Amino acid sequence: MLEALRNFADTYLMWHEGPLIWGSDALILLTVIGIVAVLTYFKKWGWLWREWLTTVDHKKIGIMYMIAALLMLFRGGVDAELMRTQLAFPGNHFLDAEHYNQIFTTHGTIMILFMAMPFIFALFNIVVPLQIGARDVAFPFLNAVSFWLFFFGALLFNISFVFGGSPDAGWVSYPPLSELEFDPGPGENYYLLGIQISGIGSIATGINFLATILKMRAPGMTLMRMPLFTWSVLAASIMIIFAFPALTVALALLLLDRIAGTHFFTMLHGGNPTMFVNLFWIWGHPEVYIVVLPAFGAFSEIVATFSRKRIFGYGSMVSSLMLISIISYFVWVHHFFTMGAGPDVNTFFAIASMAVAIPTGVKVFNWLFTMFQGRIRLSLPMLWAIAFVPCFAIGGATGVMLAVAPADYQYHNSYFLIAHFHQTLIGGVVFGMLAGMYYWWPKMFGFKLDERLGRWAFWFFNAGFYVCFMPQYALGFMGMQRRMYVYPADLGWGPLNLVSTIGAYLMGIGFLFIVAQVVYSIRHGERDLTGDPWDGRTLEWSLPSPVPHYNFAAIPTVTDRDMWWVLKNEGRTEDLQPKSADLKPIHMPKNSGAPFLIGVSFFVAGFGFVFNWWLPAVAGLCGVAACLAWRSFQYDDEYSVPVEEVMATEISLGRL
Amino acid sequence: MDRGKSRLRSFLLTLGAASALFLSGCSPDYIVLNPAGPVAREEMYLMILSTVLILAVVVPVFALLIFIVWRYRDRPGNPAAYRPEWAESRVLELVWWGIPIAIVGVLGFYTAKTTFALTEPPESNVQPLTIQVTSLDWKWLFMYPDKGIATVNYCEIPTGVPVQFELTADAPMNSFWVPQLGGQEYTMPGMAMRLWLQADQPGTYYGHGANFTGEGFAHMSFDVVAKSPSEFAQWVNQIKTSSSGLTLAGYQELKKPGVMGTVSYSSYPPGLFEDTVWVNGGRYFPDMMHMDRQANGGAGAAPGDPNAMCSPPMR
Predict the structure, then answer these.
(1) 3-state secondary structure of B86
(2) How confident is the model over B280-291, as pLDDT tens digits?
(3) DSSP states of A429-480
(4) Which of A20, A485, A581, B209 is surrounded by the most beta carbons within 10 Å?
């Protein structure tokens, strides 16, 4: 009995690996006990279930996405600090190959799929319905399903660390390395199933927001009157719908190779690994634009607001968004120019990749000329937007250098590439999401985040960024390859690696300042009593902060692009205030526990598939089917908010 | 036309020398910027050209950003113009749609030219040397089909002679990279790919696998030693006389995952490279094998051979 337990602990809990695992186990256990204890002591279980786990309110779903994204930013960031610590000195023995390989795999996967994706979805959810004058998304129930699929997919991926072992084939997970023959552990299955489950949610989100934007706009809001953030979400949603199925297929086939003995991507029996590489990047390249376009959208809102000026070249901004989303489908081969596709193919994809820089460059100039002859306030959101411009300019420029196929033969898989994509993904996506978070935070919670602590965070993170990544361009020229857990002293890579590590620590300190800022501001942050703390331009700023659950007591009629700004200038803000005579009962979707239960069922099924344990796998899938069946016969899924309640709420907010 | 070309060459050469000097200072550690052969040099020209062209956009962006943020910041009594409704200018927009398009045009042209040029041997008057490279877990096997010798984790080449590296993997895919001689190319199971490299001067050039292959990946470095043709011939003779041969059993041993130092073999089983490609999937895509040696490829089964499917991995 004891022997069996020991065996179990060593095989699945990896207790033979020592203190790092024991510590993590203890921490996780303590956190769980702590959360359960707090919820029980304050009798908050019911509240948690009613207000959050079963909610279909887009604003609450958005907040949950954001919290998850920040937690994952922490996890991915810790991974990064561990890697940089290992690489600080030549021949270092802080981590061994096995752990280093796991850590860079989880770092990449988490940052792209479980940090960037939920962060953009957070802003989609919080902002889009408010910007277009809608009361919720087109399919609120499906929206909740998307969130819980993401949540349980991410959870499944993360528990690999303490149960069975993390994936270690890189975030791109190329076969044959990721096939059973070379990677027999459960880690790779965790990777495939965690991403697959959350990926289903992502596709649903794309469909949801496409429908929302096309069908739910307030009267008068034509497409060309839409705020640019909403435009960017439209472009990203279209890309999600077309790109994610390729990933779904690639992951499903690789999973079949691993658990059902098929040979889609194996070395022997007719498998062809390059097909995975193609499928992966047919998703993978559009994916980076999926996460960066919403950041562009956020910058467009922020730059206009904090320059107190209309966005420059609105038409160009819209067409460049759509152009980027189209061209991004014709560039995927630039991730493997050196796989021998031939000079004709490489030339096509090289020039297409350079061409993406054209609309992107146009956007940068339009932001600059939005600021030109404006009045620039350097509040936190604007600071991040301004820092984004030079950072993304360099990142985009090195992207053009990488697109030059013959030169890419020298950059590929080197630290030059690492520096480039961190510069676009951090300088573009992370800066954009943080700027968006600071900008819309008062709308979510009714208070601003502390400016002083935020500036500390900003300067540490920004300075740290350049200290960390500029040396990596040079390391690329010195011939340093990515994914080496150790390097010899005689190649001269030591000093620059040490500098880079110091930069990573500075960025880590910056993140800690953000945490401190959030904690401090919950109590001491400046309260937003007007609903319009930044002197905004678009409809969401006409609402109180936080927004009542039905958003608009009366749906506004839109006559201009910067509707709220125009009304403020003309002294007609009361046009958007509800009038008691106009109030009608409001139709709203009912909360439902099914999305959460679907997520749980998918988690159980996924967990079963990871270890080829068929009982939980089948049970989980049955759970999914049962939830879907239950939902199919649920006809009473809406209710109406009576006029008296709307009136009472609006009066308490001082709007009637 | 030709003069324009040579003028561009000399311009790039000067710029290249200047920036290489700037970047590397006295340090030869920046190996990508210290090319030792025509392929790496050609690639460096393109790096420099692309750097110059992108600076034409990046520098104005930086200057504009600094100027605008300083000039139009919101402070009391700022005399600068404030035009909150000014949001369109056909002329300005034409400028910043036009300039990037022109840059991409120029860069695209040279990219296309070099992309096609690098598929040819860098020197056409000299008989090229072929070296077949197999990446294994976690070591490199080099085979000289014309000389009959093989080496592990190092290879020697004659200077001034174009070398055709034929690349495959008998393990997860890796990438063969010798920065001072030229860019990398993947080694893929079931495929044979070709990479032309050439060294001008004698020297020992650092090489490493560039695509992650698991636990021992970080230790997959190798040296490419360039020698004058006569010294190279001497070396070949020396390997032939003083080393032992690689057998099939020896190859199976070599294939087992592990890290090791350098080894030389006076001989190897003929057609070992072709067989490796064939077994790992080449037989399903005979067209993709790219191998002109297929006909005399030793023991490898012919395409379409009905027995190929069940033939043992090595014969």
Answers:
(1) coil
(2) 988 877 665 554
(3) IIHHHHHHHHHHHHHHHSBPPPHHHHHHHHHHHHHHHHHHHHHHHHHHHTTP
(4) B209
Measured CA to CA, the distance from residue A433 to residue A441 in angstroms comes to 11
Nearest to B87 among A312, A339, A493 (CB): A312
B62 → closest Cβ in A312, A390, A410: A390
**Amino acid letter, residue A421:** F
Mutate to test the interface with B, among A280, A281, A478 (most CBs of B within 10 A): A478
- B115: which chain A residues are within 8 Å (Cβ-Cβ)? 343, 346-347, 350, 405-406
Domain of B249, in residue numbers: 129-296
The whole-angstrom separation of Cα A76 and Cα A82 is 10
Q: Is A477 on the interface with B (CB under 8 A)?
A: yes
Residue B124 included in any domain:
no
What ipTM, to 2 d.p.?
0.92
List the 192-231 stretch of A: residues with Cβ below 8 A of B: none
Would you say A122 and A114 are in contact if contact means Cβ atoms under 8 Å apart?
no
pLDDT at residue B293 greater than cutoff 60: no
Q: Which tens digits make up the pLDDT trace of A540-550?
A: 999 999 999 99
**Residue B305: which pLDDT band, with cuts at 50, 70 and 90?**
very low
Pairing between β-strand B154-158 and β-strand B182-187 as defined by DSSP bridges: unpaired
- CATH number of the domain that residue B165 is part of: 2.60.40.420
Distance (Å, whole) CA A397 – CA A400: 5
Contact A328, A360 (CB under 8 A): no
Number of residues that this document lists for chain A: 656
Number of independent structural domains in chain B? 2
At B199-252, the pLDDT tens digits run: 999 999 999 999 999 999 999 999 999 999 999 999 999 999 999 999 999 999
Yes or no, beta carbons of B183 and A338 under 8 Å apart: yes
Same-domain pairing of B180 and B266: yes
Do the beta carbons of residue B136 and residue B170 sit within 8 Å?
Answer: yes
Judgement on whether residues B176 and B110 belong to the same structural domain of the protein: no
- Residue-wise pLDDT tens digits, B139-186: 999 999 999 999 999 999 999 999 999 999 999 999 999 999 999 999
Here the CATH number for the domain that contains residue B101 is 1.10.287
In a domain, B70, yes or no: yes
Amino acid at A394: I
pLDDT band at A254 (very low <50, low <70, confident <90, very high): very high
Non-local (6+) Cβ contacts of A431 within 8 A are A295, A384, A385, A387, A388, A391, A392
Tell me what pLDDT residue A655 has: 86
Q: Are B181 and B280 in contact (CB under 8 A)?
A: no
Chain A residues closer than 8 Å to B310 by CB? none
Cα–Cα–Cα angle for A18, A23, A28, rounded to 5 degrees: 135
**Res B314 pLDDT > 60:** no
Q: Write the CA distances from B202 to A403, A410, B28, B142, B230, integer angstroms.
A: 32, 21, 16, 19, 12
Q: At a CB cut-off of 8 Å and minimum separation 6, what does A570 contact? A: none
The letter for the amino acid at A135 is R
In this model, does residue A494 exceed pLDDT 60? yes
User: Mind listing the pLDDT tens digit for each residue in A381-417?
Assistant: 999 999 999 999 999 999 999 999 999 999 999 999 9
Spatial neighbors of A168 by CB under 8 A, at least 6 apart, are: A98, A101, A102, A105, A183, A185, A187, A188, B214
